[in-house]
Amino acid sequence: MSDQIPEEQIPQAEPGPEQPEAERPQTVTEGAAYTTQTPPPVMGSQPLTPSEERTWAALAHLSILVNLFSGFLGPLAALVIYFIFRERSRYVAYQAFQSFLFQMVFWVGAGLLIGVTWTVTAVLLVVLIGFCLIPIAIVISLIPVVALGYGIVGAIRTGQGEDFEYWLVGSWTRDILRS
Fold it and tell me: Helix, strand or coil for residue 134?
């Protein structure tokens, strides 16, 4: 039995109104059962160059600056970078996910802690104990400022091609991405 399919059973591309005849895909050529045309490569599936890796890793760390304007969208920006580049670059994926976790802990978590601390301080001001808590509340309020500076340091270091790991969050991120 022959491996060739009779020509009447071969699907042929019908010319569409939006597709000029020169651009229509050819599915059948004379003398062959099927023509296999390789589709053009998808841009999102190609690995990143080292320069692109450094740029996207730095942008993932700089996503902490988005928090200055929105208050909370920085982690979302880092997470979007992670999902876009996780298949194309392990380096960018690690740096972006690390930035996401860092911002969740030291920006969002610290924001909640600041709110609770100042609320307790305000309530305890009624009985004068709250005055002793004001210095503690001020120190806790500085956590997001320090986190902002640390994120910028991460962006600078990854922009220079160095491997950057946040304190406390870096090894945790590495463990999560391995599993």
Answer: helix
Half-sphere exposure of 57 (CA within 13 A, CB side): 29
Integer-rounded Cα radius of gyration of the chain = 27
| Closest listed residue to residue 63, CA positions, set 109, 21, 97 | 97
- 83-104 b/e with 16+ CB inside 10 Å = b? eebeebbebbbbbbbbbbbbbb
Residues of the chain falling short of pLDDT 50 = 1-2, 5-7, 9-16, 19, 21-36, 38-39
- Extract the tokens encoding 40: 């053009």
pTM, full prediction: 0.67
Where in the chain are the domains?
1-37, 48-178
Alpha-carbon distance of 146 to 13, in angstroms, equals 61
